[in-house]
Design goal:
Elements (H helix, E strand, L loop, with lengths): L3 H14 L3 E2 L24 H5 L8 E9 L20 E9 L5 H15 L7 E6 L3 H11 L6 E4 L5 E3 L4 E12 L19 E16 L2 E15 H8 L9 H14 L5 H22 L8 H19 L11 H8 L4 H5 L1 H30 L7 E2 L1 H11 L3 H9 L4 E2 L1 H19 L5 H14 L9 H4 L4
Parallel strand pairs: 1-2, 4-5, 10-11
Antiparallel strand pairs: 2-3, 3-9, 4-7, 6-7, 7-8, 8-9
Helix pairs in contact: 3-4, 6-7, 6-9, 7-8, 7-11, 8-11, 8-13, 11-12, 12-14
Bound molecules: adenosine-5'-triphosphate (ATP) and magnesium ion (3 copies).
């Protein structure tokens, strides 16, 4: 059986052998790109080469890129633990041509890799192309010998990639693996395509045009290639399992979580262990790339991920901080491929431990309040925004944590009510400071308060001084 580490090496080795420069993953925090929360695809570090703003030092490259899709345009946070194929943090394997080879060679290489090197049976594979892309359709037919019904034309934006409103763009072609009839879900383009039977393993983007203005698209003089394969999804296929969380890497992390809690990964606890394993990876890699928990921006996304995992640790009955104890298992699994994990191990452990200690001061009481506020609510009901806001403000529950906590019972949250409560509190805070005369101090205080959020000020509350917290 090929391990995740073997598959990563095999992919990079294959493209290296085929004239690609092996380039290291870039940071999860994109450089010089304030529009992007986290690196969410392999092409991010190469953006300027594709737009022509700078010239690539090599005509072809291959990477295994750290990606986070939690927050921002791509947000898979709510899928984690519930679909077989989504993580917040994952590795995207890719090959890139910067104005060098194009569609034909890209398809040839991809098909050779998965069917010859990886040995996937052709019968299990199907592909999609953009409905207008006859060229890709015939290439798949000729190179892969796929029958027409396994080359599905798709008309949606899923198969047309755009960097932004302007810039490089083009059709894509996605490769799917059929996990078998026993798993619910329809083929791509069908009404029930969101199931886990047909899983997208690889996306080939053919950067063919430049969007100059709305409605004005011209062919690029030197078309480029950008591809992304989910390493964990490929491992799932190659290891003969049907869920990303059953691959060697996740089994090791879940084993660590089971050992530390003494709770088997079964029944209702399975999702908790999976979420903990996923969020452990995302948190650790984000911390290794310099993100620290805070109440704004990237740091708040990190805090939300950490606290979600910590609620699940609590559900598993962990009485002491759990996540930091799993870091050695993660370092063992991934430290060789990503030495930054080894370098940052102490920082990662300490950040996780302190955050969990801090959140545990309010977590149990917050959950108590949540229980009280929702007893008697039935499936389809909504928790009022006031309570959700109190959980946020006093107990440090990010809104999405409350939503996730109620999801199993199919109870929603009044998010508009939450926003209103938040606004009201801000307005009250401003009003109570009006008239002190010291506008500079006021501005600083209010800015700080907005930035840090009220939970940071728990230390000043009456309860804290009474030693209850
Ligand atoms: P999906 O439709 O399954 O959400 P996607 O179309 O959003 O995937 P792409 O943006 O095309 O994904 O990314 C390229 C590849 O990265 C995908 O083909 C898939 O193998 C992998 N991938 C995407 N999102 C995730 C995720 N959240 N977790 C794990 N792998 C992912
Ligand atoms: Mg997606
Ligand atoms: Mg897709
Ligand atoms: Mg895709």
């Amino acid at each position: 059986m090929s391990s995740v580490n073997d598959i990563r090496s095999a992919f990079l080795g294959f493209y290296q052998k085929n004239g690609h420069e092996v380039v290291a993953s870039s940071s999860l925090v994109p450089k010089n790109d304030p529009t992007l929360m986290f690196t969410n695809a392999g092409m991010v570090q190469f953006k300027d080469y594709f737009t022509g703003r700078s010239t690539a030092p090599w005509p072809r490259a291959t990477t295994s890129q750290k990606c986070v899709r939690a927050g921002g345009k791509h947000n898979d946070l709510d899928n984690v633990g519930y679909t077989a194929r989504h993580h917040t943090f994952f590795e995207m394997l890719g090959n890139f041509s910067f104005g060098d080879y194009f569609k034909e060679r890209a398809i040839e290489l991809a098909w050779t890799l998965i069917t010859r090197e990886f040995g996937l049976p052709k019968e299990k594979l199907l592909v999609t192309v953009y409905h207008e892309d006859d060229e890709a359709f015939s290439l798949w037919k000729r190179i892969a010998g796929l029958p027409d019904e396994k080359i599905i034309r798709i008309a949606t934006s899923d198969n047309f990639w755009q960097m932004g409103d302007t810039g490089p763009c083009g059709p894509c072609s996605e490769i799917f693996y059929d996990h078998g009839e026993s798993i619910p879900g329809g083929p791509p383009g069908s009404a029930d395509e969101d199931g886990d039977r047909f899983i997208e393993i690889w996306n080939l983007v053919f950067m063919q045009f430049e969007q100059i203005a709305p409605g004005n698209r011209v062919p690029l003089p030197k078309p480029s290639i950008d591809t992304g394969m989910g390493l964990e999804r490929m491992a799932t296929v190659l290891q003969g399992v049907h869920n990303n969380y059953d691959i060697d890497l996740f089994r090791a992390l879940i084993r660590a979580s089971v050992e530390a809690t003494g709770v088997p990964a079964e029944g209702p606890h399975l999702a908790s262990h999976r979420i903990i394993a996923d969020h452990l990876r995302a948190s650790s890699f984000l911390i290794a790339d310099g993100v620290l928990p805070s109440n704004e921006g990237r740091g708040y996304v990190l805090r939300r991920i950490m606290r979600r995992a910590m609620r699940h640790a609590h559900l598993l009955g962990a009485v002491d901080p759990l996540l930091w104890r799993l870091v050695p298992a993660l370092v063992r699994e991934m430290g060789r491929a990503y030495p930054e994990l080894i370098r940052a191990e102490a920082l990662i452990s300490e950040t996780l431990r302190l955050e969990e200690i801090r959140f545990r001061r309010t977590l149990a009481r917050g959950l108590g309040l949540l229980d009280e506020a929702t007893t008697g609510l039935v499936a389809g009901a909504t928790l009022d925004g006031e309570t959700a806001f109190r959980l946020y403000d006093t107990y440090g529950f990010p809104l999405d944590l409350t939503q996730e906590a109620l999801r199993a019972r199919n109870i929603g949250v009044d998010t508009a009510g939450f926003a209103t409560a938040m606004e009201r509190q801000k307005a009250e805070a401003r009003a109570s400071w009006a008239g002190s005369g010291d506008t500079a101090a006021e501005t600083i205080w209010l800015t700080l308060r907005d930035r840090l959020g009220a939970t940071e000020f728990l230390g000043y509350s009456a309860e804290a001084s009474e030693g209850k917290l």
